[in-house]
Design a protein that fits this description.
By secondary structure, the chain is mainly β. It contains eight helices and 43 strands. Helix 1 packs across helix 4 and helix 1 runs antiparallel to helix 7. InterPro entries: DUF5686 (IPR043741).
């Protein structure tokens, strides 16, 4: 949770400091001439982006067009001439020289430039349908799959620009002593200013093989960031916005939200298609097909497809969101893709450009916003050439901080295009800002919000700041203070501690730990720590031993009923971990702990051992964990890493062995646990999140060491818990739980008049648990008769939620309505409950 929240806070950093951006051109000028005679042409219709009507019909050879929106493309059409389409970038937006060639009669096909939507009796009458059928019949795959070996390079440029700045905004007090930044701003067609604030360039080398076995490697070989080299969270936050897409897929992933692809095989269920023209793209004849969603309230695009007239391959496409896009903080999405097609069955990515216009509060046109743009150029493809097997192995050199540092001469050669004047200014501006105390104070504030720690002085952070105050039945009011070492994200060691004091029990608690990483390549690390605290056991099923996990006793300020099932735990831990393969960790924990009830008169943890009654459980165990996160992406190489948000699964297999007699431990036992967490995009129906857990204790152990089906008595949202259970209501030797949560992204509510204007999104969920508890496990506890497992029936609860509650672009509130499905005859249960909380995401 820390990783994702940190990235989100850094996005808000840009929103709250200077809410605006510009990433593309709003004004384009140039000249139009006849290709042969070079004479200027008039009466040329100029279409901006995907507009159906011309924005300008020229009266002379020179032209100037401007728009309140970003101009990505211009189309030039004149009777008896071949239509030309040009992609617009900041580099070519001025003094464009357009040559139109006279069309031969044999070349002219039916051109339909429509001002409205043509209605057909059936889709088979639509000429675009026949073309798309051939596209689907020859659906292509990424060509990298067909070669024995391959290699290629990627140049990636990610930039954030502020848009729609005006004089009133620039005079705000927040910019006092920072007004020099506006020297780097450029005028837009609207008369306001656009200011570049962030630029990251990266070059990657890619190697892969398909025979005799599959393997691949993507290595970052160069990176240059404007002013934020020491804060990789910002860099990762920027890159984390984007996903690589395959236009042929049925569902396209943006922000881990599924958008229907216009080239998908079921595209006609979402889009209307119109055959507009035949044009030339990179020397290839192409059908231009315009598409738009049948309904504006769904997650879909509008734009143009460019289909090769001979092979029916996609040469390129533009995808632009509708004005009613229902994504938090996002006003619009624009993507442009280009493909090379080496044969009839495959394609190779050539260029991918994606822009997001984001605003913290308003979706209104002209609102101050940020435009985040990422462009990727793919080049230097090589196939079926021998690749040294050593190329696929990770090397320590790749993880050194200076590995990606390159001089200006390298970047001049590596860039497909030179940087624009405004882009070059980003590096100068951010370097200048780094020397400004006021700016550094702002950065420090948002770093504190993102990391939850306040940097007191060099190398020392105070926090977590949100855990300073808490309250529970044992301690009453509780104060917690902590600190950690922090020199940077690439630290190879970290030490931290906390101390807490309860005003009711008048007791001090504490925790201290230290960790050290020997090798960044395989992330071999060790750690040790000790703690004494009041905790709520059974908050998770597949919970790691950790070193000094934070106490959850202060996590609930408002809850149904009193929480008296708290435990006093003294714990000492050591661990070692290593990643022999990327995203696969082997971890060994050794734990010595003593557990007793924090409120003996209300919560009884006493048990029988060798005929004697005991109140403290002494436990020593060793845990071996296998943790896989295939496809996960992390920032940098430090001992603490930030995981980028994507659809990567988390798979955990854990074995625990309790050792009787070791450090006076009371029990021998064996425990096996498994967990799978995975989000799935389900086409246009939204996203399904699956959490499956299973485990078994193979021996008889007391309540303090048993598997507790996790409950949530608070009125807040706590993932992977059961909202209508009480603490310790279900205790198991063996258990299986499944939690399914489906986010429909507003698909259902968008059909309801009036309500659809609120842009609410619906969530449906069901949770189930099954387990068993032996008679021996009941008998060992003094009050074992009180505990049972959901063995008679599968316990389940269900409900629905409304998310995306808020105003404008700030829609981060969610409310869930939960119903208990069975075991309704138990005393002191809650059959229905409401949970609410903040859900910071797109």
């Amino acid at each position: 949770m820390l990783n994702n929240n940190s990235q989100k806070h850094y996005l808000l950093f840009f929103f709250l400091i200077l809410s605006s951006s510009v990433c593309a051109q709003n004004r384009v000028s140039g000249k139009i001439v006849d290709e042969k005679s070079n004479k200027e042409l008039n009466k040329v219709d100029i279409f901006i982006n995907n507009d159906k009507t011309p924005s300008l019909t020229t009266t002379s050879g020179s032209f100037t067009v401007q728009s309140d929106s970003i101009i990505h493309q211009l189309k030039f059409s004149r009777k008896s001439y071949t239509t030309e389409t040009l992609d617009i970038t900041p580099e070519n937006a001025e003094n464009i020289f357009v040559q139109l060639s006279q069309a031969k009669v044999s070349d002219i096909q039916e051109i339909v430039l429509q001002s409205g939507k043509t209605k057909y009796k059936s889709k088979k009458e639509n000429p675009a349908y026949a073309i798309m059928q051939k596209v689907w019949a020859q659906k292509r795959n990424n060509g990298l799959e067909k070669f024995d070996t391959y290699s290629y390079k990627e140049y990636e440029k990610t930039q954030f620009d502020l848009n729609n700045l005006d004089s009133a905004f620039m005079k705000k007090k927040i910019f006092n002593k920072l007004d020099f930044i506006f020297d780097y701003a450029d005028s837009t067609a609207s008369g306001r200013l656009g200011l570049p604030i962030f630029l990251n360039e990266a070059v990657y080398e890619n190697f892969g093989k398909n025979k005799p076995d599959k393997d691949s490697k993507r290595t970052l070989i160069a990176q240059k960031t404007s002013g934020f080299q020491d804060n990789q969270v910002i860099t990762v936050s920027a890159k984390n916005l984007y996903r690589d897409i395959n236009i042929y897929d049925n569902t396209l992933n943006y922000f881990d939200i599924g958008f229907q692809s216009p080239v998908g095989t079921d595209g006609f269920s979402t889009y209307d298609y119109s055959l507009m023209d035949t044009i030339t793209i990179r020397g290839e004849k192409a059908f231009q097909i315009r598409y738009q969603p049948k309904r504006k309230d769904i997650l879909a695009f509008q734009g143009n497809l460019y289909i090769d007239t001979d092979t029916y391959a996609v040469l390129g496409a533009t995808l632009k969101s509708t004005q009613k896009i229902n994504v938090n903080f996002v006003n619009s999405v624009y993507t442009q893709v280009e493909y090379d097609n080496p044969d009839e069955t495959t394609f190779l990515p050539k260029k991918l450009v994606t822009e997001f216009e984001m605003s913290p509060f308003s979706k209104k046109k002209g609102a101050k916003s940020i435009i985040a743009k990422r462009s990727v150029d793919y080049s230097e493809y090589e196939f079926n050439k021998p690749i040294d097997p050593k190329m696929f192995k990770r090397t320590e050199e790749e993880y050194e901080d200076k590995f990606t540092n390159k001089d200006d001469a390298y970047w001049t050669k590596a860039r497909p295009d030179t940087l624009s004047k405004s882009e070059q200014g980003v590096y100068n501006m951010l370097d200048q800002l780094q020397q400004t105390p006021k700016f550094n104070r702002m950065v420090k504030l948002f770093e504190t919000l993102g990391s939850r720690y306040y940097n007191a002085f060099k190398g020392i952070d105070i926090g977590p700041i949100f855990s300073i105050y808490g309250r529970n039945e044992v301690e009453g009011d509780r104060i917690r203070l902590g600190a950690r070492t922090y020199f940077g994200l690439n630290d190879t060691w970290r030490a931290q501690f906390y101390t807490a004091y309860g005003f009711k029990d008048q007791q001090f608690k504490y925790g201290v730990e230290a960790r050290y990483m020997f090798n960044k390549l395989n992330r071999f690390m060790i750690g040790a720590g000790t703690s004494r605290d009041i905790v709520q056991l059974g908050g998770q099923l597949t919970s790691g031993d950790g070193v000094t996990p934070q106490s959850s006793s202060s996590s609930t300020f408002f809850a149904r009923g009193e929480n008296i099932s708290l435990s006093s735990v003294n714990k000492t831990s050591v661990f070692a971990a290593i990643e022999p393969w990327k995203n696969f960790q082997i971890r060994v924990d050794g734990v010595m702990q003593s557990i007793k009830s924090a409120i003996p008169e209300k919560f009884n943890l006493m048990y029988y051992k060798d005929g004697q009654l005991r109140q403290t459980v002494n436990d020593s165990h060793v845990t071996i964990s296998l943790i896989a996160k295939p496809g996960a992406k992390f920032s940098q190489t430090g001992i603490d890493r930030y995981q980028a948000r994507n659809l990567a699964p988390t798979i955990v297999l854990r074995y625990t062995r309790g050792i009787e007699g070791l450090f006076n431990a009371d029990f021998n036992y064996d425990k096996l646990q498994f967990m799978l967490y995975k989000p799935f995009l389900i086409g246009s129906m939204g996203k399904l999140v699956v959490n499956f857990e299973a485990g078994k204790n193979f021996n008889t152990v007391p309540l303090a060491l048993q598997n507790i089906i996790p409950a949530n008595l608070s009125y807040g949202l706590v993932p992977n818990t059961f909202s209508q259970l009480n603490y310790y209501e279900f205790v198991t030797d063996a258990y299986t739980t499944l939690q399914l949560e489906h986010h429909f992204n507003g698909k259902i509510l968008s059909y309801i008049p009036l309500i659809k204007k609120l842009k609410l999104r619906e969530v449906a969920f069901i949770r189930g648990a099954y387990g068993t508890l032996s008679d021996a496990s009941k008998a060992i506890n003094v009050e074992g008769f009180r505990y049972s497992a959901p063995s008679e029936h599968i316990y389940f609860e269900y409900g629905f939620g409304i998310e995306n509650i808020g105003i404008g672009n700030l829609r981060i509130f969610r409310v869930d309505f939960n119903w208990r499905g069975n075991y309704l005859d138990r005393p002191d249960i809650s059959k229905f409950g409401v949970k609410a909380g903040f859900q910071l995401g797109f």
